[in-house]
Amino acid sequence: MIRRKLNMFFVFGAVLLASCVKENPDGDSDVGFLHGAYITNEGAFGNSNGSVSYFDTDSAIMVNHVFESVNGRPLGDVVLSVSIAGDKAFIVVNNSQKVEVVDLKTFESIGVIDGLEYPRYFLAINDKKGYLTDGNFNGRVYVIDIESLSITDTIPCGTGPEKMILYEKRVLVANSGGWGNDSTLTVIDTGTDKVSATWVVGMDPTDLVLDKDKQLWILCKGKVVWNMDWTIGEETSSSLVVLDPVSGKLKQTVNIGSVGDFFWPQRIGINKNKDKIFYLEAEGIYSRSISGSSSGSQPLISKNLYGFGIDPETDLIYALYAPSFTTSGWMFRYKPDGLRVDSLEVGIGPSQIVFN
Amino acid sequence: MLILTKGFGINLKEMHRLKYTIFSIAVLVMLLVSGNYTLLAQSMEVQLDEVQIRGSRKSSYTTDLHTVRIDTILKTKYFGCDLSQILKQETNLNITQYGGQGSLASIRLRGSAPSQTQINWNGIPVNSPTTGSIDLSLLSGGMADAIEIAYGAGGSLFGNGTFGGSINLFNNPDWDNRISVNLAGEAGSWNHYKTGISLRTGNNSWQYHLTGLYQTSPNTYRFHNTFKDGNPIEYRMNDSMNLLVFQQHIFFRLPHNWFLQYGAWIHNRNKQLPASMSSTPVFTAFQRDQSIRQFVRVTKWYRKSSVEMVAAYFTDSLLYAEKISKTDSIVKLSGIRSSDTYLSIYHRWFISNNLTLENGADFEYQTAKVEAYNGLADESRGALFSLLKFMVKQFSANLSYRQVFYSMTGPKPLFSAAFQYHMPVNGFSLKGQISNKFRFPTLNDRYWQPGGNPGLLPETGLGYDLGFIWGAASSTKTSINLSSLLFIQQINNWIQWVPTGNYWSPQNIRQVKCQGLELDLTGRWKIGTVGLIAKTMYTYTESFDMSLPAAETRYHRQLAYVPFHLLKIQAGINFHWFEATMSYKYTGRRFTSDDHDPWLDLNPYHLADFSISYTFLTKKDKIILTGNISNLFDTSYQLIRAYPAPGRSFYVSVNYLFNQKNQKR
Predict the structure, then answer these.
(1) Which one, A2, A8, A310, B407, has the greatest CB density within 10 A?
(2) What's the predicted TM-score (pTM) here?
């Protein structure tokens, strides 16, 4: 107990130190955790040891287990994602079937959305409502009232809905296939909360970004099935599919993995100027310009990583490394050219990073 | 539910066909072998009975090891209890469990992993071919006549996976018995009910044992939810289990010094799988475990030797289903079927009164059908072994050698040496052993897709024990016994599943050093008609990851779920037919991550249990009434992170023992 109290003392000390060096333009120093990076550490499946690490991008101070230190209780099992809605953060705890909502000024819990099946990602639509993807087979998008933290509506979508993106009063949902396969985006009208279209893109779309020309880049990881002798029984190419986010018209398809090479990318990101795409595969982080040039067959950053993100202010690449799911992970920061800047310890199984 | 039964129940027709094939072959082999020895048959010598009573070849070589034996109390106090319950109550072992009765229970003996302790039923391993370990709550320890824990048992004596040691369940005949029946019933907190029967009958030539048990435990116990604001009290959901088990054993003393034992064990358990405390579950998970285990042991005694043959066929099936609570619709369904065929033959030669030599061979064939294997996976392995036991008045020792044949890695030589020396100092003995050990990769390790690694090496290691035993008795009324033992165990190529890109894969990544101290002190006093017993067991265990150049964060750190300190104190009193026992257990801090993240540690806890019983006598029968309070002070604790253990629970049981020949205390 004494040891735990000491740990809490140091955590609060670190938070205080971080807070001291960040002031908003109005001179109000009480911004708490509103500005910075939030790393979700999934933890080991079934062990309820997931956590959130807060990284103050100005002072470069990392605060691990920030939720536990403030609220005095653990988060839960498979802490998958954090999304920001004003001064609130929605922390999706996938295998605890809940979303913990915290006040970013203090990181104190202000409510829990539970009774979910397989929650994945939250997206704030405005200051009144947000969408939450849910389901590993037949998927759905829940409409969440941000004030009451209640589910007000359910919108059916494809299989295994994952990331979403908001563009001109419509939300595009990547139906990743979950524990099966899918190849569609669901388009939802945010005014009516109804599905307005379903677009066929590529096999198992899982993540998506908008570039500077307002083109939608969709990472389609492709389908892989193994045989008994370790040959691949069934596979489709993995690709970057570029669409017009309004009409859904296909602009181009860039094959980044071919049948036989077992290339199975998981995440996508974009730089500050929104003219360079990054995607993560088992070998590391690859990059390509939206105009066509790529880092080639070799990754920009060669390391078996579990997640990554790009700081929209500094263009630094934050790479997340999970050496195993029985020990803490690491966050490595790289310059845009792939040169490592520093490394910091985070929680178990770091997989996502969000900037605010 | 009906669909599940149809899809995954054991196919009895197929099982019968296989069973009869195996046993036909086994009987044929036995007849062929026995033919060569029949002419030499002589009358059985008295000294051989001792060996026979111990029930297993392996067990007769554990006397020089650190062993703990639980026997007479099994028939009444622990009738119908599973092995995890008995070990938690009677020993100081490190048992972890996911919740209430029937939840997955594992042992981490001497700082090893659950798959590194071999569990034997009448000398035959019951560890799962798919995972290497076995859920202790699936083993009906209370149906055994004796349970023996052999700490750090050598690989050359026992075979695969004995870094921690071995736990041996025996069923033995009582040739003086004619008929005895035990009817048992138990009721307890959270609507727990258990009822069973044990019938034992026979004569000097044959004995028959039949034991049956039915149990239902909803496990809706109270707990503090430490994952919610204010740690509210909640009631456990979706943790119920029901169990139906039968065992039968037939023992024959046949003419010409033949001995035959046949055992069968049918086990069916339905268990809901509760969510962790962090969840507000909308899924409910369910598991059905079914097992049929059978063996036959034939022994032929000669004047100065014996030959024993064992044939066993075990099948296990596991069905896992996940449903959405609201709709009751199944969203996930998977099943595992596995089988294990075991054949063993050995010859024991009593060269002199002081020297015994044993030579033999084991063969094991395992199969498993798992969805993730994309078909049936199988594996066979064999071993030749030689054992030499030497015994004089003050000194005993045994040497053993085993040559393992395993298709994946080629021959593996194993050896062990153990001794016990009774010193001239009154009641003082020294004992020690050195042995190397190994563990094959499991079928999951090799065939699971994606990730299974066919190139895995077996885990290997060398272990040492050294300790003493001291006993003193001032009269028949007072005695004191002390044993203390130091152990060191190296485990190389420890297999662990780690993320490797897009999937997980098992790798030989750890080098682990386990070392520690085991201390037992027992005192007994008799004051008039009052008997007193006090027992203290303390274990200090270091289990350090010494891998280099492993991640710095785990180097020289204690493995997860292995506490440094375990302490158990028991005090009992008996007076005429009244008996009461109080026990206390302390379990030290446990780490749950390799780098000892303090936010994830499990706090130390103290537990106390109390039991009281009274025995009523009639002319021939005996009725034992027992009351138990488990977790007397309602301690809130977790054996596995995020899975609460039961709070204070009350149990009342009655044992009606018909036709008891011995009415003495």
Answers:
(1) A310
(2) 0.86
Q: What is the bridge-based pairing of β-strands B578-587 and B565-575?
A: antiparallel
CA triplet A271, A272, A274: central angle to 5 degrees?
65
Chains A, B: CB contacts under 8 A, how many? 116
Is A47 in Cβ contact with B594 (below 8 Å)?
Answer: no
B334 touches chain A (CB under 8 A): no
Please tell me the distance from the alpha carbon of residue B286 to that of residue B419, in angstroms, as a whole number. 48
* Overall average pLDDT of the B321-343 stretch: 81
CA of A7 vs chain B CAs: smallest distance (Å): 8
ipTM for the predicted complex comes to 0.84
Position B451 scores a pLDDT of 87
- B498 inside 8 A of chain A by CB: yes
Q: Is the peptide bond before A312 cis (omega within 30 degrees of 0)?
A: no
Residue B3 has pLDDT above 50, yes or no: no
pLDDT over 80 at B336, yes or no? yes
* Chain A interface disruption, residue of B599, B605, B643, most A CBs within 10 A: B599
Helices (H) then strands (E): counts for chain A: 2, 30
**Which residues, other chains included, contact B534 with Cβ-Cβ below 8 Å and sequence gap of 6+?**
B522, B523, B569, B570, B571, B572
Nearest residue, CB atoms, B498 vs list A226, A324, A345: A324
Q: For residue A51, what is the enclosing H or E element?
A: strand A51-56
Torsion of CA A228, A229, A234, A239, to 10 degrees: 120
Q: How far apart are CA B339 and CA B11, in angstroms?
A: 13
Helix, strand, or coil (residue B447)? helix
Question: How high is the mean pLDDT of chain A?
Answer: 88
**The pLDDT of residue B31:** 36
Which residue of A228, A326, A348 is in closest CB contact with B374? Answer: A228
B47 confidence band (pLDDT: 50, 70, 90): very low
By mean pLDDT, which of B35-49, B52-66, B470-484, B564-578 is the weakest? Answer: B35-49
The whole-angstrom separation of Cα A34 and Cα B418 is 66
Buried b (16+ CB within 10 A) or exposed e, B417-436: bbbbebeeeeeebebbbbbb
From the list A97, A227, A328, which residue is nearest B281 (CB)?
A97
Listed range (A161-170, B50-59, B419-428) with the worst mean pLDDT = B50-59
Of B424-428, B461-465, B588-592, least confident by mean pLDDT is B424-428
What the block records as the tokens of A230 is: 């370790």
> CA nearest B225 in A: which residue?
A73
Q: What is the number of other CB atoms lying within 10 angstroms of the CB of residue A101?
A: 19
pLDDT of A255 reads: 87
- DSSP assignment string, A140-193: EEEEEETTTTEEEEEEEEEESEEEEEEETTEEEEEE--TTS---EEEEEETTTT
Chain B closest-CA separation from residue A213 CA (Å): 32
pLDDT tens-place string over residues A117-162: 899 999 999 999 999 999 887 899 999 999 999 999 999 999 999 9
Determine how many CB atoms are found less than 10 A away from the CB of residue A345. 16
> In whole angstroms, what is the distance from residue B177 CA to residue B204 CA?
8
